[in-house]
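Hello, quick one for you while I still have it in my head. A protein chain has come my way and I'm curious about its shape. Can you walk me through what the tokens say about the fold? No rush at all, and the record is pasted right below.
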Amino acid sequence: MLNSNIVKLFELLQRDKMTLEEITKALNLKERTVYQYINILNNYLEDDNLNKINKVGKTFFIDTMDLEIKNQFLEKYSSLTPEERRDYLCAKILLKDSLDLNIEKDILDISKSTLSTDLKIISNFLKENNLSVLIDYPFMGVNGEEKYIQKILFEKLTKLSFEESNLKKVLNNFLTFVFSNINLNKLFFVYSKLFEKYDIYPSNYIFVVFMVLKGINNHRYSLEVFKEELSTIDFCDYIEFKNEVLEFLESNLHEDFKQIEGEFIALSLYNTLMGFHKQREIEKFEEFLKNVHMEIFKSGDFLSQNIIQFLRTKIMTGLFKVNLNIVENLNFTLPVKKTKLNLLSKISQICEKIYGHLHQEDLLDISGIIYPDYLKYLKSKVEKKKIAIVFKYQSGYFLKRIENTLRTDYKIEDISVVPWVYFLSHKNHNFDIIISDVSIITGRKSILIDIFNIEGSLEALLEKV
């Protein structure tokens, strides 16, 4: 493996011609060490049939490589930084009762003395956190109360998951090791400490997103392996969600793992949001997003766009009082497609055709969120009409709370919040307007506003009118 200084040397000589003096100054190394690193780097380049380091006069340089070839070379041979290496070893020691240090030395491609130095630092760190280290070379383990082990394991796994690291390039066995050496529900419990800090009560999807799906994205887990791991997790009342995820993956699995990750994390964040026990504490969720997930929220990337898009389009009733300034704070640029007009504008068009003009200034036009105030206004225009808000996957208890809040706090009568399965057993329902996040067959002629297929619904409705 190439240590971090050799990688820096490679990148320096790819960018520009440099003298020996300039190299030693840039890397803060002795001349003898630089010459050693040049020889090592040349050997690796030669093994891959790439151009070796040139020397013309007093200057050294490497002929410019194609970016893809350069990245492949670095990915193949880059080693971890000392900090990354120690985080990895620490997490692995905490995950397993006993660790074979000889195997780890070979995996990390480090000397016995380097490993010894790492273990001293790790041992001191664990002792400071009420854990004792047991070493019977070549085996190493940790002794201490479970709560302390969980605390440190949580910190290390979070760091390895959220930070950009060479870990995914070098240690392809890491996620495999995690899955083969720890109970998944136990690992979820470790991660849940993060959410407890913000009084968030997520279901198990968050664990699936940040561990299993990270395995798909970085380590090319097969769909079969993913399904096998997913089946071991207790989803309790969320079996429908698990089935939906599997269906989504089976129909969308392809080379662009980033797309799958974006869709899945977005959907998971939405379901977690809708599953809060403390329904009105959305600001804590926003704090959680900003403080914990800042690394994945990069301006303009596919992942962040999907998350915000889901949060914008799927929070239907506005009971959570979402402060969408989070979007501006994180400098998002969401794509605007001509084929997807604003949801409230579409509803306005439908109601205008059917019930007369609705003033645009009376609508809370916030990119697809239907607030109670808008529902209240809609009811004032269609006073004798009965409205149903339909969700695909939510518990009856949660939906009843939304309905009671709309009726009691916002004085919106004749409105019901129901799961889509309601219509399977109530073919003769009496709803006049149905606002849904899933295509449903109602069994009765109603105005159906399908927020996921609004184009088709709009055309069909206008034809009927």
